[in-house]
Amino acid sequence: MTTPRTAEPSAPPGRRDARTTRAEILRAARYLLARHAHADITLKAVADRAGVSPPLILKYFGNKDTLFSQVMSFEADVGALLDAPLAELGRHMVRHLLLGQTERGADPLLRIVFAPLQGEQGDILRANFRSQVVDRLAARLTGPDAGLRAELSVGTLLGLGVIYGIARGAHVRATEVEEIVDRYAPAVQAQLGEG
Amino acid sequence: MTTPRTAEPSAPPGRRDARTTRAEILRAARYLLARHAHADITLKAVADRAGVSPPLILKYFGNKDTLFSQVMSFEADVGALLDAPLAELGRHMVRHLLLGQTERGADPLLRIVFAPLQGEQGDILRANFRSQVVDRLAARLTGPDAGLRAELSVGTLLGLGVIYGIARGAHVRATEVEEIVDRYAPAVQAQLGEG
Predict the structure, then answer these.
(1) What is the pTM of this model?
(2) Which domains are delineated in chain A?
(3) Is the ipTM of this complex over 0.85?
(4) Which residues does UniProt assign to DNA binding (chains A, B) (predicted)?
């Protein structure tokens, strides 16, 4: 209860290491979840990939389900995705997705495309996607059919992620980010309104 | 060499059964490939799902690789997807994808989103997607940057498939097909030109 939640450059080494380790465990679980069905992923596989012991994962996350419920969350990513005024949001979302692809080789939003492979956990992923991404965007829109328009704009964005990061389109990958923003953002913004 | 390739309503029962069985084997392989990595799928698993014996699969397809090379092809699907004049192609593609979702619960084009899970076979899937879908569409476009515009229009379409069929957006699934066509097709057509 006394641990501050803000970033602390001067945090003691022990606490900073714990944060790094947690992040590494989450990254390992996320990596495996993008490639295997949830039921097939063992704690040991996550531990091996993160370079820690299975008991350490249990210490930080309690059990496999609580670990994966964090991996299934979009909460940590959606703030940055939606961080722009509504009139500029289409351009911001397209640029944000493309920079994720070019700088980190992936975008957290794209995890939703693997939902069919995750069994019951796929339903959690879909429910989180709806409440944490679509509903949050819809709440910012004015005018009728905000929910539908939020889904269609996020869908348009996901399509760019698929053609860039999954189908790996040669033309789109050879094009400057800002040119793709110019070409693609109007379609996203048209659903958001205030174009 | 003497087997005609056209459909024959009057084909003898034996040949018609062979066609049905081939289709069932392909359907089983496609189903499994949308849920498991290629390396993890055994011929026996395909045979069990199709209700045939593994040797029968070998008789029809030679080996597992030739079977999966057919499963990885978009050739059989792209003709119907692109079967419209250029000026109406955006609406046609959106309607085609939505009817696939509402009538058959899936669209063959969406197989591309599982490419990351398929290892080397994923590269085949990507190469087929490029040559059989993107390049074929690009060849019909006029004006500059046809390849880039083909990728962006197909990407837009895939995004609708993801939000409808994978994220299972509640709003989009509660909306009439023709209303989604009205709202979404302009974004696809804008990339194709001749809007």
Answers:
(1) 0.83
(2) 18-71 (1.10.10.60), 75-192 (1.10.357)
(3) no
(4) 42-61
